Amino acid sequence: MPPKGSKKRAADTEAGAQSKSTKTDASTTAGPSTEREPIVEVAGSNDQAAEIDGPDDSGSDDADMTGEKIKNDPYTYIVNCPPRFEFEARYNKEHDDGGEDFDEEKASELWAEEHNGRKCACFNKERTDGWSMMRKAFARKMDAETIEIPHRDPDRFDMYVYNDFAGYGYQEVIENHMAEFNKVLNAKDGKTEELWTILESMGWWIVDEPNAPWHMIDDGERSWLTYSLLGFMLLTALNRMDTEGDLKTDSKYKDLSLVLALWAKAADDLGGDVVDPLASKKMDSTIGDYAGFNLLWFRYLLTLAKEANVPITGVTDVDDKIDGWNSQVEGKVTLPPKRVDRFDWKAKYQLYTKKYGKAGKIGGEAFQITKWTRQKRAKHAFDKKDPLTDDQVKALKDGMVLQMM
Ligand SMILES: [Zn+2]
């Protein structure tokens, strides 16, 4: 499957540069200097997410939020600038008139310029073009993008392991988030808000870069099962909201429509010509031939949102297509009857775990290069030396986190 939405970055940037990690003396760059040298910071503690100071907090009530509070508070909403893909979609819609002189890279450059120059909605409350998400979702997103994913990317360490390594590393991150979802879902005191923070953050980072290696892993069957399971994860959370009376127009989940639109974009990106492996029955072939419809969860999502009167809106690419999708699906999809596990998450998750998990568990840390021994890293490094410095190795041992922008 070709990597969709993987347009080359026009300018490398410090995406999410608003993160305020506690820099230590060990702060340094990883590996020998290269063209695209990563910026690596050793963040203050294992509670790295807690260090994230998100968008401009000055003067707000949560200025005194401590790490532990943030960890346990999936309720406060904060505003960020829209992700690069959304900024590009808006810009291109406005400026691309089909003329030959349209600069495809321009929007990406502008996004970086605004964000790195702190001119965007992350830092300026008067900007009205931002997106909101729960504070904890933002922390999850930052962890995924600056720690979990880059720590599994050999390029970032000047290493080579094997061709699909970064893709399978990304898969491991995805699985860790699904496992976390499953854990919260089944925990006695697992909060629906907590489930929501997982979906808010994932919806954002799975459609954003750097997801390209993930789309190219050589196990298509596993990819499809994953694409399908991810959507059923969303449906499962929505069903729980529904049973709690929160799947509605004026839901207490303020970003409900936006997150649904993000996941609709995910369906748009992930859909293909393969029949959903988690569809138990043959799917209605009279529904249009749009690729995303091959994911059963996407048909369900459109139908569920329609029934609940929740608009799927806020993502430019989706806003342009949603009416068309809805009209194709309308009246043709029957949702499973209402019950606790309405979308059979348990069975579906088990099926995946049985097939790809180890000892009943999915995900893990096998691909996390920073957790390897120095010898193992050195073996795969281009120059046969551990890309991490002595200080970095010591900092990691002391429980610090390498944050890679
Ligand atoms: Zn920003």
TrEMBL record:
Region: Disordered; residue ranges are 1-69
Bias (Acidic residues) occurs at 53-65
Specify the superkingdom.
Eukaryota
Q: Where is the composition biased (Low complexity)?
A: 19-30
Q: What is this protein called?
A: SAP domain-containing protein
Q: Which organism is it from?
A: Aureobasidium subglaciale (strain EXF-2481)
